Amino acid sequence: MTTGKEYVTAVFEKVKAQNSHEAEFLQAVEEVFDSLIPVFDKYPEYIEENILERLVEPERVLSFRVPWVDDRGQVQVNRGYRVQFSSAIGPYKGGLRFHPSVNQSIIKFLGFEQIFKNSLTGLPIGGGKGGSNFDPKGKSDNEVMRFTQSFMTELQKYIGPDIDVPAGDIGVGGREIGYLFGQYKRLNGYKNGVLTGKGLTYGGSLARTEATGYGAVYFAEQMLKARGEGFAGKTAVVSGSGNVAIYATEKLHALGAKVIAVSDSSGYVYDKEGINLETLKQLKEVERARIVKYTEHHPNAVFTPAGGDSIWTIKADLAFPCATQNELNAADAKALVANGVIAVTEGANMPSTLEAIEIFLEAGVSFGPAKAANAGGVAVSALEMAQNSQRTPWTFEEVDSKLYQIMKAIYTNSAAAAKEFGEEGNLVLGANIAGFLKVAQAMSAQGVV
Ligand code: NDP
User: Fold this and answer.
1) What digits encode the pLDDT tens for the residues 203-212?
2) Which of 108, 129, 198, 234 is catalytic?
3) What is the distance in A from the centroid of ligand 1 to the CA of 368?
4) Could you tell me the sign of the dihedral formed by the alpha carbons of 3, 18, 427, 89, in that order?
5) What residues contact residue 51 under an 8 Å CB cut-off, 6+ apart?
6) By Cβ atoms counted within 10 A, which residue in 34, 107, 264, 267 is the most buried?
7) pTM of the full predicted structure?
8) What is the pLDDT of residues 108-166, one digit of tens each?
């Protein structure tokens, strides 16, 4: 009989051979596969049904041309993607990323992670992801609008409120979602459930903007509780200064912790008095300025440009990587551990390398993996879909309290799965297994599709 290890190894070898040029995708797959070995020992029927090989192959990968005209009248061309990874438990759901680094490997890694994350929320949503190598930085509002209209003109053929429901991610915030929604509506009529992260005047949900950052902090709260600790008096380092980082900072401050550093791709600021949230929001949400400008408002804060000492060399009790993939490597993990970090919570997707995760787990640091800790965003997106379907908006408090309960349940289920499969405290393993089991059961019930 094939063992779990033999099965997982054989499938991974195949995945590597077929996707050898997709480094980020293989990294995400390896992390999940490593966790699933004991599951296949316990449920050999999933080996017979070859669930893993089916799951790791996207149901559909779409790649398309996005031509648009810049402000000088010059025609530009970008590449658009949508990966519809798994609809085993619901319509494809996952964000759109606009960033020059976007390629098929990055969209596939994000889509693959999204399957398990969405399953963990307990809500009926499948996994997908999309985006483009378009860089919104330095573009005028009109250029962003023309690009997003062209992008949606193609994407609209493949999405719909019960088929595939995109949302935001890096480079796609309220402005971009507004333009995308407008173009979808122009081509298909008003269907408010086709996108989430919408503005509050046209079907958006209260607390969606805050959800990923708040949710990550709620998850961290559960990890701290399990160690007999709380936020009061703790210091935190948060990387990034976008949607996730800003609202993680806001909630950390509200719960009594002090965030002492934030960053963007140009560097980081360290403010030992605590990052001033009002300044941060003004610079990032209103002015779209670079983070160095923070020091003009707070002269005691120190700016370190990218390429200098990493943000993770700052001594703090808590770390929240909230910028991008692979932003925290083994050397960073060692520095954090040496400085006595007690909890690391991933607000971004796959921000820690596999080596960094090993270091945290071995050092007994509480480690909240992305697919569990940052699931709050997609969870509230699913709540936005529910409100759209019933045509009734909920209050901020209603949504926030549902978010809190969902994050608590994700922690409890991940911790329970880790314990059941013999690795108590390993939330990486626990989240992967808890997310996988529901999807596997659904796939098994639906036959070979
Ligand atoms: P934003 O675009 O709002 O902010 C991204 C932040 O990360 C910016 O400060 C940006 O700096 C920084 N950043 C991006 N790429 C890099 C890079 N290559 N190197 C260094 N810094 C970088 O995105 P979000 O806050 O929405 O997303 C952040 C992370 O959270 C992503 O991994 C995303 O997938 C994940 N996430 C987001 C969710 C959401 O609801 N928004 C939900 C779940 C996960 P700069 O401006 O200089 O580029």
Assistant:
1) 999 999 999 9
2) 129
3) 18
4) negative
5) 440, 443, 444
6) 107
7) 0.97
8) 999 999 999 999 999 999 999 999 999 999 999 999 999 999 999 999 999 999 999 99
